[in-house]
Amino acid sequence: MKHDCSHDYFAKAKEVIPGGVNSPVRAFKSVGCDPLFIERAEGSRIYDADHQSYIDYVGSWGPMILGHCHPEVVRAIQDAAVNGASFGAPTYKEIELAEMVCEAYPNIEKVRMVSSGTEATMSAIRLARGCTGRDKILKFDGCYHGHADSLLVKAGSGAATFGVPTSPGIPADFAKYTLTATYNDLDEVKSMVAANKNEIACIILEPIAGNMGCVPPQPGFLEGLRELCTAEGIVLIIDEVMTGFRVAFGGAQERFNVRGDLVCLGKIIGGGLPVGAFGGKKELMDQLSPEGGIYQAGTLSGNPLAMSAGIATLKLLKQEGFYEQIEEKSAYLEAGLRQAASKSAIPTCLQRVGGMFCTYFCEGPVNNFSDASKSDTEAFSRYFRTMLDSGINMAPSQFEAGFMSVAHTKQDLDQTIEAAEKAFALL
Ligand code: PMP
User: Fold this and answer.
1) Per-residue pLDDT tens for 24-63?
2) Is 267 designated active site?
3) Which atom belonging to ligand 1 lies closest to the Cα atom of 23?
4) Is 57 an active-site residue?
5) How high is the pLDDT of residue 227?
6) Short-list 251, 281, 288, 253, CA closest to 269
7) How far apart are CA 115 and CA 274, in angstroms?
8) Using an 8 Å Cβ cutoff, are 357 and 334 in contact?
9) Strand order in the sheet with 38-42
10) CA 419 to CA 98: how far, in whole Å?
11) DSSP label at 367?
12) Could you tell me the pLDDT band of residue 152, with boundaries at 50, 70 and 90?
């Protein structure tokens, strides 16, 4: 593969954009090569500025579950654009998408649209604090919920990749309200809740942790948190920005049959356009302005282009057999990668839930961030570079998940497995 054009663009970008990118992990900094600049994408493939194609498992970090440029989604965006890009006034499309979200999640009675996952979690936390009159929040090490101040404490994703899980710029006075616990350790959460009796507004978590690779909840973990929150008057916020409409139409909550008081969504509900949402029971949601006093707003919230892309996407996901197809393709890839990984000279551990997966370069299982941190990130980087050179685009960090789309063909999957055999053998 040649990267002359991407290389030149990156040099230029670094002069006018911090680190050359508008979101840190895109810089490929931890994998020892320059990032690809992308020109276009279609189906399972993306095309770089040097006109080479790659089988894509990043999928814009999750939203592209239909594959890139699905004709019906493209048409919906085009049709919306000719009627006006933004009005700053309510539209019928917002009702349509809200109804679809409420139908998919029985615990969402009302939902408010925002423009990113960060806004969704940040707003849900404000609502939880406002409703309970409590200041503290509890999150889990290695979970990422966007870059709001109170959430960049022991965070996953890029924050973990670059070794700054708690960012400078966050006053200690803010960070002290964020308690952090070990993912999958219910006893630890219970003792933290007991030590902070009547002080914790909410517990926020990824129901499957996708920002430290792919860590499923252990049996009883989600159920235990639900019970604890109910008993202690704590708002349980389930952050399904990544898992929502991915691991089932009703997300991880449908899959594991545990329900949050508030739910955060993003990625897939925008079909690739900037969208987030948070919703839950009426009693909580009605405390938002203008009904209640808890303020939250957005110039582009409910944007008609984004709503149209989301509606078109969700309609396609509702079709009979959609999630079975994602499962089948993902299981096929998993089996092939496991077989390929058996040729590796160093231990590997593959974890997957539905269409999200990760290979760690250590003994498994990986149940929390401390386990994930044992992965040999040097080996990951070598694996990543060999895969990229074979035309496979994976997330450029150990602490991210891979995403399957319905557009991936058997040929794509076989080509990926073949490339992985080579990459594992070279380790
Ligand atoms: N929550 C989760 C679980 C996420 O994975 C992400 C982004 N990867 C966010 C929140 C933040 O979303 P955004 O990047 O759209 O702000």
Assistant:
1) 999 999 999 999 999 999 999 999 999 999 999 999 999 9
2) yes
3) 14
4) no
5) 98
6) 251
7) 5
8) yes
9) 38-42, 45-48, 53-56, 392-393
10) 42
11) -
12) confident
pTM summary value: 0.98
Helices (H), 35-151: 71-82, 92-104, 117-132
Q: In one letter, which amino acid is 285? A: M
- Domain definitions of the chain by residue range: 4-69+321-425, 71-317
Nearest-5° Cα angle at 38, 32 to 42:
125
DSSP 263-305: EEEEGGGGTTSS-EEEEE-HHHHTTBTTTSSB----TTTT-HH
- Specify whether domain 4-69+321-425 bears CATH 3.40.50.2300: no
Quote the tokens at residue 413.
């999957």
Quickly list H helices, 145-199.
158-161, 172-175, 186-195
Rounded Cα gap, residues 107 and 391, in angstroms: 42
Tell me which residue of 344, 362, 364, 343 sits closest to 352, measured CA to CA.
364
**C-alpha 241 – ligand 1 centre gap (Å):** 6
Q: Which helix (H) or strand (E) holds 384?
A: helix 377-389
Q: How far apart are CA 39 and CA 5, in angstroms?
A: 11
Spell out which residues line ligand 1, taking CB within 6 angstroms.
Answer: 61, 116-118, 121, 144-146, 157, 206, 210-211, 239, 241-242, 266, 276
Contacts of 165 (CB under 8 A, 6+ apart): 141, 142, 152, 153, 154, 155, 156, 159
**Cα dist. 39→52, 53, 253 in Å?**
10, 10, 36
Catalytic residue among 56, 239, 371, 412: 239
Distance CA 11, CA 14 (A): 5
User: In this predicted complex, what is the ipTM?
Assistant: 0.99
Write down the CATH number for the domain with range 71-317. Answer: 3.40.640.10
**Dihedral angle computed from the Cα positions of residues 402, 408, 412 and 418, in that order, rounded to the nearest 10 degrees:** 30
Report which ligand 1 atom has the smallest distance to the Cα of 264.
Answer: 1
